[in-house]
């Protein structure tokens, strides 16, 4: 008897959950484009500065996510979006996030902090007042999701991520994803013109050891992050990490803990400034390529400061 009651309760919970999902779509997804519609093409700038053309994603299943970093429901769904990306990117499914953020730093900061490693684009304009993409895709609620097939037609339009998860699971189970997967494009990484030896020679000739760091006997490893543009120029140069910091001057060990900490902070700041300067002044690199065409590539370059 208890088993029957338990089974009945579980079925009721499942039915209620399904009704809630259907109610959410009936309330908030009724204006979304209908399945079978050709997904409208668009071109928007990514957080890395690259213009993304949506029609270039033809040939793959695509999950198109409309969101914003200020949206609580969007943030709640984001761990599941990351799980989808991890589960299906090797199976040919591509994700694109379309954000209604207006502040680049907040938008990009959220992407970076949460490691959202799929294409992210935005108009950086006020939703429903200045944006065009919401009109194109009839987005009146976020988060909203579309699943688009390799021919560019909408397969699913919903505000319920559970439906996206279910559809992808079915497409995977019946072999559809495997049959539609495109070969991975060949990506050739950018490089300093002349190769690693030329890069080492350049750094040796142009890197200036900060005077304060020389005096203190400070040493460290600084990782510079930047974007290699299609023409080989370097943009968005910044320091992503400082590690292996230490003092070689014996006199520093006799300082108080607070004085050493202050000196370390000063020296780390000097190392960061110099690393950004030397990278920013580099000549153009040989750009990265994908399928033989130049592409934007984010690059990490470690620079050692040692006496």
UniProtKB/TrEMBL annotation:
Naturally occurring in which organism (per UniProt): Segatella buccae ATCC 33574
Record bears the keyword Disulfide bond: yes
Signal peptide boundaries: 1-21
Gene Ontology terms for molecular function: antioxidant activity; oxidoreductase activity
Cellular-component GO terms for this entry: cell envelope
Residue ranges constituting the Thioredoxin domain according to the UniProt record: 33-176
Alphabetical GO biological process terms: cytochrome complex assembly
Keywords: Cytochrome c-type biogenesis, Disulfide bond, Redox-active center, Signal
The keyword Isomerase is annotated on this UniProt entry: no
Subcellular location: Cell envelope
Major subcellular site: other
Name of the featured protein: TonB family domain protein
Pfam family membership, one: AhpC-TSA
């Amino acid at each position: 008897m208890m088993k029957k009651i338990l089974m009945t309760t579980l079925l009721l919970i499942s039915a209620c959950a399904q009704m809630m999902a259907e109610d959410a779509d009936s309330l908030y997804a009724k204006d979304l484009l209908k399945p079978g519609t050709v997904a409208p093409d668009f071109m928007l700038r990514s957080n890395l500065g690259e213009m993304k053309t949506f029609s270039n994603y033809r040939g793959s299943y695509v999950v198109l996510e409309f969101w914003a970093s200020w949206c609580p429901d969007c943030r709640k769904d984001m761990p599941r979006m990351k799980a989808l990306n991890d589960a299906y990117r090797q199976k040919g499914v591509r994700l694109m996030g379309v954000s209604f953020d207006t502040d680049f730093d907040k938008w990009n900061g959220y992407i970076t902090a949460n490691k959202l490693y799929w294409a992210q684009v935005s108009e950086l304009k006020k939703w429903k007042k200045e944006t065009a993409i919401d009109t194109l895709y009839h987005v009146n609620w976020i988060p909203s999701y579309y699943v688009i097939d390799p021919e560019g037609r909408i397969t699913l339009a919903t505000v319920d991520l559970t439906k996206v998860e279910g559809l992808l699971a079915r497409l995977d189970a019946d072999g559809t994803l495997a049959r539609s997967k495109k070969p991975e494009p060949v990506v050739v990484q950018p490089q300093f013109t002349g190769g690693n030896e030329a890069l080492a020679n350049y750094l040796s000739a142009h890197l200036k050891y900060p005077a304060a760091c020389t005096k203190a006997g400070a040493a460290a490893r600084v990782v510079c992050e930047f974007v290699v543009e299609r023409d080989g120029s370097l943009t968005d140069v910044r320091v992503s990490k400082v590690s292996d910091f230490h003092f070689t001057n014996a006199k520093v060990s006799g300082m108080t803990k607070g004085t050493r900490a202050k000196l370390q902070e000063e020296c780390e700041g000097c190392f960061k400034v110099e690393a950004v300067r030397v990278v920013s002044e580099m000549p153009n690199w040989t750009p990265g390529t994908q399928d033989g065409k130049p592409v934007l590539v984010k690059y990490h370059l470690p620079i050692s400061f040692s006496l």
